Amino acid sequence: MRIGLYPGTFDPITHGHLDIMKRAAVLVDRLVIGVAINRDKGPMFTLEERVEMIEKHCAALKEHTDVEIVVHPFENLLIDCARDVGAQFIIRGLRAVSDFEYEFQMVGMNRAMDSSIETVFLMAEAKHQAIASKLVKEIARLGGDVSKFVTKDVHQALLDKFQG
To answer: 111 an active-site residue?
Structure first.
């Protein structure tokens, strides 16, 4: 069984994340969405809120594929999470060259810790390359329209956070 781990904070989940999930689902038999707790990033949405958003969107994806999709929160090293879920692949999305520089270092460190786990990079679709959760939150915080970057329910959750 080919198991892939797609990790991230998903704070919030965007169309770019969903695109990578959809495309990763054709590469594996089981796709684990690793939701990083990552207290250092100070996520806007709680772990529970992020997991709920992802599970909702994964349910729709499951209807169109034969792939098992599991949401798995984690707080340990990415390579340890990959081992924990039995992943042979870590799936990472790339938007720009600046992403690659960081990811290149991460791959080197992960391979030094466990060379049996490969990292697979998927380039974001051109229409999603500018989308970053950090920017989505900033635009929403300042009253901008982020409906092009996230689903309707995530858009509403952002509005609730900033208007509540």
So the answer is: no
